[in-house]
Amino acid sequence: MNTVVLRRRLVYICAMVLLLVPLYFLGKPSVRRQDGSILDQGGALAQLRTHYDLGQSDLGEMDPASESMRLATLGLRGVAASILWQKAEYYKKEQYWDRLAATLNQIAVLQPHFVKVWEFQAHNMSYNVSVEFDDYRQRYEWAKRGMGYLVKGSKYNKRRTEMPYELGWFFGNKLGVADERVQFRELFRNDGNFHDEMFDESGLDFTQRAARGPDSKPDNWLVGSLWYQRAYDMVDAGSKPARSAMMFYRMSPQWRMKYAEAIQSEGILNYPARQAWEQAGESWFSFGQRQIVTTFGDTIFLNELDIASEEAEKQKAEFEAFCGVTLDRLKAEREAKLSPEEVAALAKDEVDRSFDELLLARHAMDQMAIAPLDIARETPEEMRVEAIQKANQLINAEEKVRHINTYRDQINFAYWEARCIAEQEDAALAARTSMFEANKLLDLGELDAALEKFEVAWVNWRKLFDDYPGMMVDDAADDVLASISRYRKLLDAPDLPDDFALGDFMKFREIHENNLADPALMSVISSWPKRYPGRNFLTEMLRKTKNAPTPTLSDEPPPLPQRGNIPETTPETTPETTQPGNSETTPEAVTEVTDSPEQPAESETADAEDSKSEPEATGTEATGTEATGTEAAGTESTEAEVTEPTSGGTLKVESPDPGDAPIPDAPK
Amino acid sequence: MRIEDYQMWGYFEWLFTNYGLLLGLLVAVAVAVLGFLVCYIVSMARYGPSEGFYNVTKVIYELIARDLPDTSMRRIYALSKLAFQEAIRRRVLVVMAVFIIGLLFAGWFLDPGASNVARLYISFVMTGTSFLVMLLGLFLSCFSLPADIKNKTVQTITTKPVRCTEIVLGRVFGFTAVGTLLLVAMGVLSYIFVIRGIRHEHEIKDVSPDGRTGTTSYDASHSHTFEMVADENGKFTIGTTDEQKGHRHVVTATEVNGKMQYEIGPPEGLLAARIPKFGKLAMTNRDGEIVGRGLNVGYESEYQTYIEGNSLMSAVWTFENVSARRFQGGDTLPIEMSLKAFRTYKGDIVTGVQGEIILRNPNGNLESERRGFIVKEFALDRIEIPRTLPGFENGEPREVDVFDDLVDEEGNLEVVVRCTDAGQYFGMAAPDLYLREGDSAFGWNLFKGFLGIWMQMVLIICLGVMFSTFLSGPVAMVATLTSLILGFFGGLALDIATGATSGGGPIESLIRMPLQVGSEVEFDLGNPTLEFVIQKFDQGAMFTIWTVFQALPSFGQFNTSEFVAYGYNIFDALVARHLTMTLAYFLLTSLVAYFFLKTRELAAA
Question: Are B262 and B294 a contacting pair, CB within 8 Å?
Fold first, then answer.
C-alpha cells in the first residue's frame, strides 16, 4: 500500500516538474537594460504582455502595498473595491471626511490602474467635499487633496493623459474660478510646501519661469497650463489624448489667457498683462497650427481658413467658368421664379439687409440653390465627366471651409485670436488702467480724480470697442458696465451726459440684452474688423436696429441667416464646451457640449457654485457658459446643406462623390 | 463621530427606565420555556410522556441539586489550564504574528497626511485587533469540544469525577485566558504603534524680529504658526502653536549667549479622553416656539437639523446636574461644540458664518450676555465661559454667576445657540454641543476600548462553546459565524422583520422579484385569500426573526473604538452595561451548553 502511494506521489511530482518546463519558457519574463531597452524578449506570454502594454511595469509605477493587497484579496479585489466604494459613498453622505479619504486610498491601492477611479474620486474631493466646508482654508486643503490624488494616480498610470489633463483643469478651474478664487490664488501662490510636495511627487517644477506670475510666485493658471503641456508631451511620446484633439490642445493656450485675465482683474495692467496676452496669442496661434482630424474624416488646421477660403473661391470660379452656359441657364430659370422683393434682398450685402430682407434672402437662396453636381449633370455630354470632376473638387474645397469654420466656431477661435491682439493695444491698457485706478480712487473718496480717470477710460474703451466689437459682449464689457454704474452714481445725475463716449455701447448692450440685436451682424461680430474694414460695427448695428420691429413670438422662429462662416455644429462633431464653472459633475462627463471657451460661469452662492451632484450623476463638464463671442453657442446644425450667396445664384453643396480629400500641409 | 442617545443612558436608566433588565429577563424566560418544551417533546418521543417529563426535570434537578453546588473551582482551573495548553498547541500565536505583520506594513496603507492621524491610527489598530481576536475566539471555541468528542479524549475526562458545568466553564475560561493574553499584548503594541505614529518634530522656520510670532518647519504634511507670551520680564519665553491636524505644540524659548533658542514640544491634544456632559436638544421654530427638530436643508442624512440665521429659530440644550464641582472648581464653564454651517448665499467668505451663545436659567428670568462666535466645522470649538459675566435679569442688566444664578434649583442649565447671519443656517445634533467636565487618561480610555473588544471575544467564545456541545466543529463554526454576522449586520434583517423596510416578508418578496413588482407597489396577486395566507406566513417568519435577533448579542454595540479614536471618554455606564450584558450572555449560553452536554451520550459519540 505504501509503495503504491509513494509511486503515485512520485508520478505527480514528475508530472508537475514536466509541466513546469513549458510553463517556464512560456512565462519567462523579459529582461531590460538599465536604459529600459529590451535585452531579452522573454517567453511568449511576456512578449504578448509587452505587445499589448499589459504588464504592470508598462502601465506605471508598481506599489508594494497595492500588490500585496491584490494578493491578499485572493482575486476578489473587484468585490473588495465595490464594497469600499459603497463605504466611501456612505462616509460622504454622513460627512465622515477622514474616513472617506482613507477609503479612497484603499480603493486606489486595490485597483491602481482603473483610471476613472482616480478621476472620479479626485473630482469628488476637490469639488464635492471641499465645498462642504465653510472655511475657505479647509476648502483649499480638500481641493489640494484631490490634486494630490490625481498626481498619485498619474504615477501608477504613466501613459494615461487623463490625469495630467485633469490636473490642468483642477489647478486652473478650481483655484481660479471658484467663488473663493481670490483667496485660493493667494493661498496657492504662497504655498511653498505644496509646490515642493508636487515637485517631489510629480517632478513638475512650479517655480520654473513658465509657471511664475508677475510676483515671481507660481500662478495657478500657468501651473495648470504646464500640466496640459505635460499631457501634450505624453501624446507626442505615443499616448492617446484624453479628449478630442481640438478640445485637448486648446486648453493650455486657453489657460494662458485666463492667466492674463486673472492678473488684469487683480490690477496688474501694464507690461506683465501685455506680455501675458502676447504669450497667450502666440500659444493660441501654435494651437491653430496643430493638425486636427475632424469627425468628418478630414484633417484641418484652424489657422488655414483664409487659404481654404481662397482655394474654394478659386475652385468655384473655375467651375462656374467651365459650366458657364449651363449655370446661366439654370440660374435664369430659377431667378425667374423669384419675386422682385427677393431679388432686391439678394442683391444686398448680408449685413445691409433688414430683418425682413434677411428672411426674403434666405428664402431666395433656398430657391436658387443648385448643387454643383446637378449643374455638372446638366452640362453637354462631352463636358460632363470633367464637370463632375470639377464639381467634386469644388464640393471638397467648400466642405473644408465649412469644417474649419465649424471647428473654429466651437471654440470661438476668431474671438480669442482677436482678443489676444486687442488686449495688447495701447487703448486696451489705457482703458483698463484708467478704469482700475478710477475705481480705486473712488474707493478712497477722491471723487474728482476718479471722475477724470473714468473719462479717460471711456474714451479708450470706445476706441477698443470700435476696433474689436467682439469685446462688447464678453466679461470685459461686464466690468465696464459695472464701472459705468459707479460712474453714474458718482455723477449723481439721472442720465449720463450726451457726449458720454460709451453712449452707443450702452445702447447696443440694451439691444443685445433684450435679444433685439441684428443676428446677421452678431454672427460676424468677432471677425468684423477683418471682414468689413473701415465700417463701424456699432454704427451699423444701431442703424439697423433703430427702426427694427420688435420680433413677435410665433410658432416658427425666424431662421438665422446662413453664410459660410456662420457656425454650424453637426451631430458627429458633438461639440465640447470649455469645462466651465466649478460644476459638480463628475469627471466621467461623457457628453461634451458645445464649447465656447468663455469665461466659465460662476454662481452666486458658494454651494451652488460647487454644486453637489452625486458622483454617479455623470454630467457634462460644461455648465453655465455663455457664448461671449457669440459665434459658438446657439447655432444650428446644418451639416448637409450650406447655402452661399453668390452674385446671381447659389450653389447647393452636397456630399462629394467618393474620393480622397487631399490632406493639407500646415499653413505657413 | 456620532454618539447615539442610547449610548448616553446611565446604567440604572438603561437597566430600569429603558427596560434593559426586563428584556434580559424576558429573553431568559423565553429561552427557558422554549428549551424545556423542546427537550420535553424530544424526551417524550423517546420515552413516553411521564418518563420523558421525569428525565427533563431530573436534568434540571441535577443541575440545581448536584452539579452547581458541587462545581469545583479547582477542577475548573485544571480544565481551563488544559484548554489553554491545547490552544497554545494549536498555534494561536500565529494570530499575534499576523497582527505584528499588520502593524509593520500599516504605514503603506495609512495616510500620514490625514487631518487627524491619531484618529486614523487608533481606528486601524482597534479594528484590526477586533477582527483578529474574534476570529481567534471563533476557531478556538468551535472545534475543541467536537474534536475531543470525536477523538474520544473527552471520555478520559468524563470518566473522572468532573461535572458538565466544569467542562463548559473550563473551556470558556481557558479560551478566554488565551484570548485575553493575546489581547493584552496587542493592546500594548497598539499603544506603542499609535504613540510612535503620531510623534513628529518641527523646527523653527521663521521668527518675527520681536520674537513674538513665528512659523515652524513643514513636517508630517503640515506646519504651524506660533505665538509667544511675554513673561514677567517682558520676554517672550513660552507660547503655543496654532491647531493643525488636531494638535498643538508648546514652544519654549531660552536665551543662550544673548540669542534666543527655541524648542518645540511634542504634539498635544491628539490623544485625548474628554469627559463630556451631554444635554437634551430642543429647537425653536421661526415663531420662537419649541419644536423637536430643526429644518432639513437638503442633506440626505438627517442626523443634524438646521436653524435659520437672524430669525427666532434657536437651538436649546438643557443640561442636568450642573454644579461647580463638576468643572474643576467652576472658575469657568468649558463648552465644546462642532456645528455645521450652511450658506444659502455666498456672503462673507473670509469671516465665516457667525452665531451667538447664551446661557439661560430654565425659569427664563436670568440669562447671560450674548457671546459671539464664528462657526468651526468638523472640528471642536472650545469656549470658556467665565463664572461671572454680564447678564440680564428680567431684561435688566446685572452681573450673573453661571452656577449660582443660571443653574436652577434642580441643577438644570440651558445653553441657547443662534445663528446671527441672515439667510445662513447652523446645523446640529444633540451631541454636537456639550459641557466638558474634564479629561480622563488616554491609556485608561484605550483600556476601556480594548475591554469592549474583549467582551466581543468572550461572547463569541461562549456562543462557540455552546454550539460545539451539540454540533460538529464546522457546523458549530458556521452557527457562531452566523450569530456574529447577524449581531453585526442584523440591522437590515431587523428592519425587514419589523416592517420598517417595505416589500414584505420572505415569501412576498420572493414573489415580487420574478413579477418585477416594486417594494412600494401594493401586493396584488388577484387572489385575496392567497395574499392573506402569504402575509400571515410572512408575519410568523418575521416574528421569528425578530425574536432571534432579540436573543442574539448585538456585537456592534460593544465596539467603542470610535470613542477612543475621537478622543471621548467611554462612559462608565456604557462599560458597566456591556459587562452586564456579557455576564448575562455568559450565564445563558453556559446553561444551554450544560443541558446539551448533559443530555448528550458522550460515550456513544
Answer: no
Select the residue of A64, A93, A606 nearest B108 (Cβ to Cβ).
Answer: A64
Task: Choose the closest CB to B377 out of A65, A135, A604.
Answer: A135
The 10s digit of each residue's pLDDT in B47-57 is 888 888 888 88
Task: Say yes or no for a CB contact (<8 Å) between B301 and A101.
Answer: no
Show Cβ contacts of residue B301 under 8 Å, excluding neighbours closer than 6 positions.
A93, A94, A95
CA distance B473 to B147: 7
Q: Does B343 touch chain A (CB under 8 A)?
A: yes
Residue ranges with strand state E in A244-377: 292-293, 299-300, 369-370
Contact A134 B343 (CB under 8 A): yes
Model confidence at A34, pLDDT cuts 50, 70, 90, reads low
pLDDT higher than threshold 90 for residue A307: yes
Q: Which secondary-structure segment (H or E) carries B584?
A: helix B572-599
Residues of B in contact with A97 (CB under 8 A): 115, 378
Interface test with A, best of B104, B111, B561 (most A CBs within 10 A): B111
| Per-residue confidence (pLDDT) for residue A54, from 0 to 100 | 67
A474: left (phi over 0), alpha (psi -120 to 50) or beta: beta
| Average pLDDT of the segment spanning B31-35 | 85
Across the interface, do B109 and A183 touch by the CB < 8 Å criterion?
A: no
What pLDDT is recorded for position A577? 35
> Cα distance from A180 to chain B (closest Cα, Å)?
7
- Give B253's DSSP letter: E
Identify the pLDDT of residue A62: 58
Do residues A422 and A464 touch, judged by C-beta distance below 8 A?
Answer: yes
Q: Is the pLDDT assigned to residue B293 strictly greater than 70?
A: yes
Q: Which residues in chain B have Cβ-Cβ distances shorter than 8 Å to A65? A: 105, 108-109
Any idea which of A135-149, A164-178, A201-215, B7-21 has the lowest mean pLDDT? B7-21
On whether the CB atoms of residues A288 and A305 are closer than 8 A, the answer is no
Within 13 Å of residue A520, how many CA atoms lie on the same side as its CB?
22
CA distance A182 to chain B (A): 10
Nearest to B204 by CA among B161, B265, B270: B265
Start-to-end C-alpha separation, chain A:
90
Q: What are phi and psi of B483, to 5 degrees?
A: -60, -40
Q: Which residues contact A527 (CB under 8 A, 6 or more apart)?
A: A414, A418, A565
Task: Give the pTM.
Answer: 0.76
Q: Does A109 touch chain B (CB under 8 A)?
A: yes
Which 607-666 residues of chain A touch chain B by CB within 8 A?
607, 609
How many degrees, rounded to 5, is the angle at CA A489 between CA A484 and CA A492? 125
SS3 string, B95-154, reads: HHHHHHHHHHHHHHHCCCCCCCHHHHHHHHHHHHHHHHHHHHHHHHHHHHHHHHHHHCHH
Of the residues B203, B343, B351, B375, the best mutation for testing chain A's interface (the one with the most A CB atoms within 10 Å of its CB) is B343
Residue with cell 490625514: B114
The partner residues of B533 in beta bridges, in order of sequence, read: none
Nearest in space to A624 (alpha carbons), one of A655, A603, A606, A642: A603
E strand intervals along B429-471: 433-439
Chain B interface, best mutation among A134, A197, A602, A604, by max B CB count within 10 A: A134
Residue pLDDT, tens place only, B544-591: 777 777 778 888 889 899 899 989 999 999 999 999 999 999 999 999
What does the pLDDT read at residue A66?
64
| Cell numbers linked to A324 | 458657364
Asked if B226 and B241 touch (Cβ cutoff 8 Å), the reply is yes
Query: Is B342's CB within 8 Å of A97's CB?
Result: no
Per-residue pLDDT band at A97 (split at 50, 70, 90): confident
